Amino acid sequence: MGPFTLAVDAKSSGGISSDASNRKMQELQLEPKKFFASVNARDENPFDFLRILFEGVIAGGTAGVVVETALYPIDTIKTRLQAARGGGKIILKGLYSGLAGNLAGVLPASAVFIGVYEPAKQQLLRNLPENLSAVAHLISYRILVGVLTAGVLGGIASSFIRVPTEVVKQRMQTGQFTSASDAVRLIASKEGFKGLYAGYGSFLLRDLPFDAIQFCLYEQLRIGYKLAAKRDLNDPENAIIGAFAGALTGAITTPLDVIKTRLMVQGSANQYKGFFDCVQTIVREEGPSALLKGVGPRVLWIGIGGSIFFGVLERTKRFLAERRPNDQRYSKTE
């Protein structure tokens, strides 16, 4: 092969390369912009369900206990404001009443919750089209709180733990009982087993939109910020995004929280016959503004709680990821 042949080949190759490059640039320019930020999870390592489940359980349980312990007094004030009818006086003593019993329920509930959310979210991100990644975050969390497929098991298990925990906690916060064991025993004896699940429907009605909106907001803001900054987020950044998502969602869902609280703390008095009767009675007797009772403490509590929860959650996930075997250390989908 002579020099002339090599020169022709080089020119030909260069022309082909140039044409390919131009075509690629045109394709990139024609590619539509995506409204939602997303991460393509299909190119990552094989889906490791057990690892993601385990890390989600540990991270979720840790985050749940930390945030509940830190902000329990604010939660107590919020509950007392919502439970007070008319211009009832709010007592500021015993703000940690019921904490120990509540943590006994928060730990497994948070562990189950995140333990199902993380693998469900990541599996959906792998299977849905990339431009539907925002929907993936929304659907995966709805699966968690209780409708269909594998995620429903975690959602139902979580709600079965969370509702009795919430009932006992709020009865103690409003001074009806002095210990969790007494609360469980007396509620069961006076109201039956169903008394421990008072307000179950309103609890799910509040938590379904709350969880879906909060996590969808958090995931999309976090991914969008990550793509804009072209780096992983640090702990303060995760905390700020979590605070914003939590505070906004908390404000939006306050009326549902007021109704849930009233149904849970009414006990055997049965002041309200159900969700709609509760709404009508509150509006008729106290005015529409009563549906926003406790909105200040709720937004403060969930805003600070979101910063702590998501900050601890991401930090714990990163801590666990750093201790994986070397061949399993990947983080783009997490």
UniProtKB/TrEMBL annotation:
- Protein name per the record: S-adenosylmethionine carrier 1, chloroplastic/mitochondrial isoform X1
Checking InterPro entries in the record gives:
MCP (IPR002067), MCP_dom_sf (IPR023395), MCP_transmembrane (IPR018108)
GO CC annotations on file: chloroplast membrane
Q: How does it sit in the membrane?
A: Multi-pass membrane protein
Q: Where in the cell is it found?
A: Membrane; Plastid, Chloroplast membrane
Q: Which GO terms describe its biological process?
A: transmembrane transport
Query: Species name for this entry?
Result: Sesamum indicum (Oriental sesame)
Q: Which Pfam families match?
A: Mito_carr (PF00153)
Asked if the keyword Transit peptide belongs to this entry, the reply reads yes
Which branch of life, at top level? Eukaryota
